[in-house]
Specification:
The protein has helices at about 10-20, 45-55, 95-105, 135-155, 175-180, 230-240, 295-305, 320-335; strands at about 5, 35-40, 60, 65, 70-75, 80-90, 125-130, 160-165, 205-210, 215-225, 250-255, 260-265, 270, 280-285, 285-290, 310-315. By secondary structure, the chain is α+β, with helices and mostly antiparallel strands. It has one domain: Formiminotransferase-cyclodeaminase, Chain B, domain 1, CATH 3.30.990. Helix 1 crosses helix 8 (about 320-335), helix 2 (about 45-55) packs antiparallel against helix 3 (about 95-105) and helix 6 (about 230-240) crosses helix 7 (about 295-305). It is globular. InterPro entries: Formiminotransferase_C_sf, Formiminotransferase_N, Formiminotransferase_N_sf, FormiminoTrfase_cat_dom_sf, FTCD. Keywords: Signal. This is Formiminotransferase N-terminal subdomain domain-containing protein.
Length: about 375
């Protein structure tokens, strides 16, 4: 099954090809890099999503933020959800993320939100991921906690729950914390929810998850059925907590564009790859690995096939950990603040023109936002 990374926009793919064809220049950017995959509860307004992304890379008073880049914007119309990939040194990323969060809170009202993906906040999720050996998880956790406090101070009425290494000393995972916060419930009792930071939250802003963990990749597999019960059965067989499930894989089955999507959070797990073939990387000397997208697709195909259902396609949201670091290094070394508007023509010497399908219009599956920088 061909794995289509259809969530990125075209110029981003050209830049990624350049990374794969050229080595990092000596002395290039790459020290203490982290990524924040900012999840906001809006995808149907191109203007809002663009403004939030721009806020991360442009200061209204000082202009472009040096050392900060937006690598990718994924959006999904049915889910009404966008993911903005921000990369920078851990020493400067807080202000970029806070500026984006602050504007998102101004522009998105959860009282009017409609979408098929579970969510609780205008800014729904703020995860911080180290991109290599130079930054550890404990440091990312401290930065995430500081960011959470700053958000609630800048936007009164916002509230936060911690997860991962921001949830000290417990280090509870995102899935567990979401359950505790009633994130999976359709109509949760908001009065009963006790945030970790902030006062009793306002419905306009909702509740934001802020945390730190090893990189989490999103891999979504669409199965050819409208029967959500079939999707839930597939999800149960795939998730880590089930016998025979894949390590690090958390799964939801959601209705999507007349079919069912098996939406997977693919967490990086500590240790050597189970069979030596999983992609791996290191954080402060510790080895981590993650289930590869082809394996996830094959397992979904197997589980769905047992119920007489086929697979329609697979899509990665953003990048693998290795791709994210490589692209961040190249973008920052070249001073690229955000992914510029582009075409299918190769913009860099030595790269080939892309042969990807024509990009769909904004609001449809796989659409992207072009940052005109």
């Amino acid at each position: 099954m061909r794995v289509e990374k259809s969530m990125t926009f075209l110029s981003c793919w050209a830049l990624l090809l350049y990374v794969l064809h050229r080595k990092m220049p000596p002395g290039g950017v790459g020290q203490r890099l982290v990524a924040c995959l900012l999840n906001i509860s809006e995808a149907r307004s191109k203007d809002i999503v663009e403004k939030v992304a721009r806020a991360a890379i442009f200061d209204s008073k000082r202009g472009q933020r040096k050392g900060t880049t937006v690598l990718n914007i994924f959006n999904d119309h049915d889910y009404n959800r966008s993911v903005i990939t921000i990369a920078a040194s851990i020493d400067i990323i807080r202000e970029a993320v806070l500026s984006a969060c602050e504007l998102a809170c101004q522009l998105i009202d959860m009282q009017n939100h409609v979408g098929d993906h579970p969510c609780m906040g205008a800014v729904d999720l703020v995860p911080m991921y180290p991109l290599g050996e130079e930054v550890g998880l404990v440091e990312c956790g401290k930065e995430a906690r500081a960011l959470a406090i700053s958000l609630t101070e800048r936007v009164p009425g916002t509230s936060v729950f911690h997860f991962g290494f921001a949830d000290s000393p417990h280090h509870r995972g995102l899935a567990q914390r979401r359950k505790e916060m009633c994130w999976f419930q359709k109509d949760p009792d908001l009065e009963a929810i006790k945030p970790d930071v902030g006062e009793k939250f306002e419905r306009r802003y909702g509740l934001t998850g802020v945390g730190a963990s090893p990189y989490v990749m999103n891999c979504n597999v669409t199965i050819d059925t409208q029967d959500l019960a079939v999707g839930r059965q597939v999800a149960r067989g795939l998730r880590e907590s089930s016998p025979g499930g894949l390590p690090g894989v958390q799964v939801l089955a959601l209705p999507h564009e007349g079919a069912v999507e098996i939406a997977c959070n693919v967490e990086s797990v500590r240790g050597a790859p189970p069979d030596g073939s999983w992609p791996s990387f290191r954080i402060c000397g510790e080895q981590y690995c993650h289930a590869p997208a082809p394996l996830i697709t094959a397992r979904v195909a197997q589980l769905a096939g047992e119920q007489g259902v086929g697979v329609k396609g697979t899509a990665l949201v953003g990048f693998t950990p290795e791709e994210c670091r490589g692209l961040a290094e190249r973008a920052l070394a070249q001073g690229i603040a955000g992914v510029p508007a582009g075409t299918t023509e190769a913009p860099f010497p030595g790269t080939r023109p892309l042969t990807r399908p024509k990009a769909p219009k904004f609001g449809s599956r796989g659409a992207g936002v072009e940052l005109l920088v």
